[in-house]
Amino acid sequence: MSRGITIEEAVGRVRPLDERAARAARERQDGLLKPRGSLGELEALSIRIAGITGQVKNTLTRKVHLLFGSDHGICDEGVSGSPQYFTRVLMELYAASGNPADGQCGINVLCRHAGVALRLYDLGVKGLGPRPGIDSSHKLMPEGTANFARTRAMPPETARAAVELGVRLVEEAREEGYQMIGAGEVGMGNTAPAAACIMAALNRPDPALVGRGGGLTDEAFANKKRVIVEALRLHHPDPDAPLDILSCVGGLDIAAMTGVFLGAAAYRLPVVIDGVISIAAALLALRLVPGAKEFMIASHRSAEPAYTAAAETMGLTPLMTLGMRLGEGTGCPIAMQLVDDALAVMNEMGTFAGASLESEYREELRA
Q1: At 325, is the pLDDT very low, low, confident or very high (cuts 50, 70, 90)?
Q2: Residue at 2 is within a domain
Q3: Are 144 and 126 in contact (CB under 8 A)?
Q4: At 339, is the secondary structure helix, strand, or coil?
Q5: Same domain, 142 and 236
Q6: How confident is the model at residue 367 (pLDDT cuts 50, 70, 90)?
């Protein structure tokens, strides 16, 4: 197992995209048998992957999805429509037999269908003991985070440990030969800390940024908004200090995913964002080092208002609008297949030069 590096060391490793490779990839795209720009985001994806890897043609055959389970003390305030023990039950189901007849969950099915390895980590799930298929060696808070409506969600040193764990897991994945990373989570009530983290990072304690999550009554929804806004007023987290935000109002899952996004940039691997919990972590990673954005791929557009605010601030365009709100990182394996499609076009599509076709007319067809 890797010794791991600190947050500061990871930040220091982040470098810009390889502009030479990206430029060569753009030139190849412009010469393919199609009007320039006619494949939209697929073209942009293949060019960005070239900038990440340093080569024009790429095949990312080995993919892994890292799923973090943790409970959240803020559930004590009635911000979740599901009982907290569902976190434990779902983690157990994710780790169950690989036989599809066993009634697997969404992330199991989608990862298997897309050929993506699934790794499960228990960072703080109540009542979940050691079991095959779940790595519980990093259980940072056995009962999950504290209720951030009353006190800090976690000590600052725990927030740091969770972020650095995420960085280390990316390093280990790279050493195992994985070429693309997905980040997902499970934890009842975690749309509350996600919204709180985004609101804190944007310095916008606006209740309009709070969404219903998995489903709440109107009364419970109003309470959720009030709880989050009052918690931000209580703690006053520093918008420019991601570790302070995580310590005040975050979750262990969000902290570890922050490390995954940072680690992906440090170790030059493309990494896929899922929904609102995932993009909260991506935004905090961006606060640590702006260059991390170039390695991020936004999978699907979440209906949560905090997601929209974060994506717009980060300048990210989600690849899909599917009305998804399951969590687990389910957008990641789907988006990974789109990345495969983008790379197949770059690698396999013919060129005007190769087909001996006149191409001057395309100057009038720029998208």
Answers
A1: confident
A2: no
A3: yes
A4: helix
A5: yes
A6: very low
Please state the pTM of the whole predicted model: 0.94
Q: What are the DSSP E strand ranges found in the chain?
A: 63-70, 116-124, 180-186, 271-273, 296-298
Give me the pLDDT at residue 135, please: 96
- Whose structure tokens read 């390895």? 117
pLDDT for 351 equals 85
Question: pLDDT (tens digit, 9 = 90+) per residue, 94-128?
Answer: 998 555 556 689 999 999 999 999 999 999 999 99
| Region 205-212 average pLDDT | 94
Tokens of 215: 């489903």
Please check whether residue 306 lies inside any domain of the structure. yes
Residues 169 and 307 occupy one common structural domain:
yes
Specify the CATH number for the domain of residue 17. Answer: 1.10.1610.10
List the one residue out of 274, 257, 48, 77 whose CA is nearest residue 169. Answer: 257
Same domain, 23 and 167: no
Domain of residue 52, residue span: 7-58+345-364
CA distance 358 to 9: 51
Residues annotated as part of the active site: 328
Give the full edge-to-edge strand order of the sheet including 296-298. Answer: 116-124, 63-70, 180-186, 271-273, 296-298
Instruction: Name the domain count of the chain.
Output: 2
pLDDT in the model for residue 2: 64
Claim to verify: residue 205 and residue 306 sit in the same structural domain: yes
Alpha-carbon distance 159 to 123, whole Å?
Answer: 11
Which of 169, 326, 166, 181 shows the shortest CA–CA distance to 246?
166
- DSSP state letters, 116-182: EEEEEEEEE-TT---BTTBB-TT-S-TT----TTTS-SS-HHHHHHHHHHHHHHHHHHHHTT--EEE
Indicate if 248 and 300 belong to the same structural domain. Answer: yes
Which tokens belong to 307?
């997601």
Q: What is the pLDDT of residue 358?
A: 57
Q: What is the mean pLDDT of residues 67-87?
A: 95
